[in-house]
Write a structure and sequence with these properties.
Structural class: alpha+beta
Mean pLDDT: 78
Number of strands: 10
Number of helices: 9
Shape: globular
Helix content: 25-40%
């Protein structure tokens, strides 16, 4: 399959992105709880560099001015801060940064996170990490990958992940579908892992997901063995994420209820949820201090299964969503 650099884009001025006032509040709350290695100044003039298959890069320009009201030590003047982001293949020295991003991936469960990170870093065919291009340290802003559930089913981390999902799923009409995805259908399922700092500019999302799904497609053609090529022929994607959900709602949901208040912390999750074949939510033990506007909301886990055939629609809708923001 022909490899082509990502098409050049120019973003003149990215505006603050959120679905609602509630979502903006969530983003602000969450950003205050990030590890200091993840917390970089959110007022960016960005030059995004997207990865192509031959390690060439296409640059994307972003610009945003920071107002004086955003920082107490900047009162009385505006400031423009430049940062260069780059997309890279995962490497062993990314271990600490990826581990930090994934430290609450399974809530507060004690599990083989180290082994999980090792698998992500070992799979360089499919997967991307986002860093500052010329950063002196190895701080990461994002990690995105897709791991075959069947291929890694005997790894301790995947066995513990399966155990966790079956434990937190309290809906009987969904439990059977979940068992099927984690069992008989596991070899056809890609665990879509996408974790990042809250203040990552949303304009990076379309090229980041494009890179992921392009690499999945390329892997079905380019991997050296038929077994490896088949391991990327996903029929489904399993997505674990977090939302804020009204505390007055019943625990869990397998339906898309328009009258059920929820806040999507990551914009792409609303699209995944809409396109999902089925989903369920569950309460998280780990909670964050919330602003006044979120006093009636609780941080909630959300598990979704999306058919791979829906990914082209996802990509188009994500691009449209970010472009209109």
């Amino acid at each position: 399959m022909t490899r082509r650099p990502t098409k050049r884009h120019r973003f003149l001025k990215p505006h603050p992105f959120a679905f609602s006032a509630f979502a903006r509040s969530v983003a602000q709350v969450a950003s205050n709880f990030k590890h200091k290695r993840q917390t970089h100044n959110p007022k960016f003039q960005d030059k995004v560099i997207s990865k192509s298959s031959d390690d060439h890069f296409t640059k994307h320009s972003l610009k945003e001015e920071a107002g004086a009201s955003e920082s107490s030590d900047e009162e009385g003047h505006n400031e423009t801060i430049k940062a260069d982001f780059a997309f890279f293949d995962p490497k062993p020295n990314d271990f600490h940064g990826v581990k930090i991003l994934l430290q609450t991936y399974l809530d507060n469960k004690q599990w083989d996170l180290r082994g999980f990170v090792d698998l992500i870093l070992a799979q360089t065919t499919v997967g991307t990490v986002v860093k500052l291009e010329d950063a002196e340290d190895d701080g990461l802003f994002s990690v995105v990958t897709a791991l075959n559930l069947g291929q890694y089913k005997d790894n301790r981390c995947f066995m513990e992940l399966k155990e966790y999902l079956l434990e937190v799923c309290q809906e009987k009409n969904v439990l059977g579908k979940l068992r099927l995805i984690l069992g008989e259908e596991a070899s056809n399922v890609g665990l879509l892992v996408s974790q990042r700092v809250v203040n990552l500019p949303p304009q990076l999302l379309p090229p980041l997901y494009d890179a992921l799904f392009d690499e999945v497609s390329w892997a079905t053609e380019d991997e050296p063995t038929e077994e490896l090529r088949d391991s990327f022929r996903f029929k489904f994607y399993l997505v674990l994420t977090r939302i804020y959900k009204s505390a007055n709602q019943q625990k869990g949901t397998s339906r898309h209820c328009s009258d059920e208040p929820m806040i999507y912390i990551k914009p792409e999750d609303e699209i995944f949820h809409k396109l999902s074949s089925w989903s369920f939510s569950y309460p998280l033990r780990t909670q964050q201090l919330a602003m006044h506007e979120l006093r009636n909301y609780s941080l909630t886990g959300l598990v979704m299964v999306v058919e791979a055939d829906k990914i082209p629609t996802f990509r188009k809708e994500l691009q449209s969503l970010i472009s209109e923001s």
